[in-house]
Specification:
single chain, alpha+beta, 7-stranded antiparallel beta sheet, 4 helices, 27% helix, globular
């Protein structure tokens, strides 16, 4: 009898340790991401269907957006890797137009997440009004659809980079 009670307690405990999942639902499909403690989900802000905001740290909230582009395609890794210069030129032009200074670029890379979806990433760091920001763009190939995600944080809020990696490493799409 003691063994059964121990098994039941362990089963309940392990279920409580499992991460909760957020379902981001739009007309074109559903995106699933892990729920983060103390993070807030914003909808239809700044032209983005979903933006996930971190708790405030160093006077700022880091954020990551999620958009189902509706595009049905797979990305050609070779072409994306070759367009880094174009990306860098575009980000530099944007930075100068808003009074920011380009600091550095993060090279293009592609990884596969735990659901088997390829995630393409490229980044840009810039300084604006005395603060340095880290911005990354992600393209997620998810069941024949293309999801776009963008993260933004203060450079000093490096802890949120792990949160972004966790979100993207676990992102999945249902009926997308």
């Amino acid at each position: 009898m003691k063994q059964i009670i121990v098994v039941i307690i362990l089963a309940v405990f392990s279920l409580s340790l499992q991460a909760k999942t957020l379902e981001l639902k739009k007309n074109s499909g559903t995106i699933f991401i892990p729920e983060k403690s103390n993070w807030m989900l914003g909808k239809e802000l700044f032209g983005m269907p979903f933006i996930y905001f971190s708790p405030e740290m160093n006077g700022q909230r880091s954020n990551i957006s999620f958009t189902d582009t509706g595009a049905e395609l797979e990305l050609d890794i070779r072409i994306l890797a070759k367009t880094q210069k174009k990306y860098q030129d575009g980000r530099k032009k944007w930075a100068l137009s808003v009074g920011a200074d380009p600091v550095s670029y993060e090279p293009y890379e592609v990884k596969v997440n735990k659901h088997g979806h390829r995630i393409h990433r490229i980044g840009f760091n810039y300084a604006h009004e005395g603060k340095v920001y880290a911005e990354k763009s992600y393209y997620v190939e998810c069941k024949g659809k293309l999801l776009f995600s963008k993260s933004l944080r203060l450079k000093e809020n490096a802890a949120h980079e792990k949160d972004f990696a966790d979100l993207l490493g676990s992102i999945d799409c249902g009926g997308v």
